[in-house]
Amino acid sequence: MRVVIQDNYDKMCKWAADYIAKKIKAHKEDRPFVLGLPTGSSPIGVYKELARMNQAGELSFANVITFNMDEYLGLPHEHDQSYWYFMHDNFFNHLVDMKPENINILNGMAEDPEAECAAYEEKIAACGGIDLFMGGIGVDGHLAFNEPFTSLTSRTGLRDLTTDTRIVNSRFFGNDPEKVPAQALSVGIGTVMDAKEVLVLISGHNKARAMAAVVEGGVSQRWTCSALQLHNGAIIACDEEACGELMVDTYKYFLDIERKERL
Q1: pLDDT along the chain (263 residues), means of 10
Q2: Euclidean distance between CA atoms 147 and 124, whole angstroms
Q3: Looking at the annotation, which residues are catalytic?
């Protein structure tokens, strides 16, 4: 696992955006670059920087296919808290050459959610798999909507959301947890682990426990993000505040390794 520690959130986002841009530009295969994307507050700075690069002519998305991690069950696209709305409002609408047909987001209004999830897995495979999956984690270490004790081999499917997750997300629903959908469609941990690379963003002191679990703890369904320890292409991009629960030697180790990488 690679852990890249930056001074603050803005620098973390700049590093992550630069890394993603480098991977897209270096892609030479005769198929589009396939990029997995998250929602939430963590990636917003990355999306802003990628959009800036795109608008400045520094990075093209014309040959990029995207797959989002998740979507609330029962929210239509036009609902301002749907993840379809979030992605277009915060990212896709700001890209000058992103092809709408290359955007893939689970349909929270699907009549048959299980069939929708199965088709999503099939489409990912048909596109050649995901080259890089960017993600964020919750304070309880959940990755996508794979709550604690979700199988680490899970595939895209229907997920029940915990009370804690609904309370955290209630800030977007008038601070009323009951207005937060109780279920969501989500890629599985196994789906994420199939990606060639996984880049997870962790920022803020409230994520420090989860950060320590994913880096130093054992692999466990209690912390679904800990599965990243088993991925040969896992990268954690974090800020200083997220490192508050790491052991000093762990913190120094990753700073030293990254310093040598830059030399």
Answers
A1: 97 98 94 96 97 98 98 94 96 98 97 97 98 96 94 97 90 90 96 98 97 96 96 98 97 91 58
A2: 22
A3: 70, 140, 142, 147
Q: Please give the pLDDT value at position 263.
A: 45
Q: Note the pLDDT of residue 262.
A: 62
Alpha-carbon gap, residue 46 to 91, rounded angstroms: 9
Three-class secondary structure of residue 204 per DSSP: coil
What is the dihedral angle through the alpha carbons of 21, 27, 30, 35, rounded to the nearest 10 degrees? Answer: -50
Residue 168: per-residue pLDDT: 87
Of all helices (H) and strands (E), which one includes residue 95? none
pTM for this one?
A: 0.94
DSSP 182: S
The helix or strand, by DSSP H or E, that contains position 180, with its residue range, turns out to be: none
DSSP track, 22-78: HHHHH--SSS-EEEEE--SSTTHHHHHHHHHHHHTTS---TTEEEEESEEETT--TT
Which CATH fold topology does 2-262 show? Rossmann fold (3.40.50)
Domain positions in the chain are 2-262
Burial class (CB in 10 A: 0-12, 13-18, 19+), 245: middle
The two structure tokens encoding residue 188: 């599985």
